[in-house]
Design a protein that fits this description.
Distance between the termini: 16 Å
Helix content: over 70%
Radius of gyration: 14 Å
Largest sheet: none
Number of domains: 1
Number of helices: 7
Number of strands: 0
Low-confidence stretches: none
Oligomer: single chain
Order of helices and strands: HHHHHHH
């Protein structure tokens, strides 16, 4: 159900190539185990990534998407370390204000509206 809600949200809220890069960077952070989001937010962001991964980004393309696909199947510590390095590079390429603005925009435009709270999902 989360995937359907996110897919509908993406259709109603077109994302720029820069936004796609932000989603990719967040997905890397989720996969390297350093993300501090709650479980529901991680599921929503993973669904958002799935909804936009075929769209062009400004900076990140096939190499990043192949890495993410591989890590989602199975990630040992060596792969997690590599993902961490790629994530740090990605976050360096995207300025902190751009990332903060992206996160604020998806919240303000209702990406998480209607999603179960952390308490409801446990």
């Amino acid at each position: 159900m989360t995937a359907d809600l996110v897919r509908d949200w993406v259709q109603a809220h077109p994302l720029s190539p820069g936004d796609v890069d932000c989603v990719t960077a967040v997905m890397l952070k989720i996969l390297d185990g350093k993300c501090k989001m709650g479980a529901v937010d991680k599921l929503v962001m993973a669904a958002l990534y799935d909804a936009v991964k075929s769209r062009p980004g400004l900076r990140f393309g096939d190499e990043f998407h192949a890495l993410i696909a591989s890590a989602r199947k199975s990630a040992d510590e060596t792969l997690k370390d590599f993902i961490y390095e790629k994530r740090v590079l990605a976050e360096t390429a995207i300025s902190r204000p751009v990332m903060k603005a992206f996160k604020a925009m998806i919240r303000q435009q209702g990406l998480f509206a209607g999603m179960p709270s952390e308490e409801e999902s446990e």
